[in-house]
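Checked the freezer inventory, then went back to the computational side. Two predictions to log before the end of the day. The first one is the construct we discussed on Monday; recording sequence and tokens without edits.
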Amino acid sequence: MYQEICKNCSKLYIPKRRGVQKYCSDSCRSRAYQKRKSTGLKKPAGLTTKKSEEVKNESSPTINAASIMNAFIAAFGYDAIKGLLTPAGSKSVTRNDLNKLIERIDRRYIQLRNVPMRNDGTYAFCDKKTEALVYLKIKNHGV
């Protein structure tokens, strides 16, 4: 039979899991943990913990880019910021966009592009309500 020495109480014992078990019983394992915890042995390197007094004494929190961005999103809303950062070609169509398109299609006057401009600077339009040809002066050609 294979026997090992308990790392806590130094008694001989037969391990149930050879090579893995270090203590003779659960109570010995627990006592060893309590000893390590109280003396500070086997603490992983680089691991530091703040005491509650240190946390209470910190007067000002640190400000970083993530906290600024979170505050900005909270103030202006996610959808507004997403709209600013999304390229124009990738934005989805909104109800307002559709209404503008319908209004543009349903305009009363439709420019007749095959009729040349008159000498007085007016362009030919078709009035949808009266179904008549009218000449209107426009600021931008091609509207």
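The second is the one RB wanted added to the comparison set:
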Amino acid sequence: MKYLAIGLGFNLFWLLAVWGQYQYVTLLMSLLIGCWLFYRRCFPYALLASVIGIGGDYILFQLGVMQFPLPTDPLFVPFGYFIPLWLILLWLGFTSMVWIMREQVQRLPLWGVIIGGSLGGAVSYWTGLTLGAVIWPYGELVTFIGIALVWSIYSGYLLWLLRRMSKRGSV
């Protein structure tokens, strides 16, 4: 029941980030801070794990694989040159959720994490496309396959980092 609630909570977080974009940035930040205060050991993992995802999305953005609608609020305009703040917060929320569910995630075989992560990640970005949060100039099929491949790497990295940081017990 605990993991169902965590999964539903993350899906709500995802919806606020992707559908709401800049409209709910303050709420997203508040939820992250609350999560990190409650699950203190989650913060270092979320930061280390998110760096790769944020960097990867930035590379995809620079290569023109993904484009984002420009923010209308002048406060967020600088993110038009990077990736959206809501996407950065989404990465931090996702990796926080992975840490919170680490016992369940670590029970999965590597191939299951890679296949599930690659498809789940690609479907998540495709759903963002349908909600108008992202634009795929190279078309849906090619971009979906490319994002699935990138997410297979992300997923392996997230599991590796999760196992490494869980073993240490220092985080």
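For RB: The mean pLDDT is 92. The chain has seven helices and no strands. Let me know if you want it refolded.
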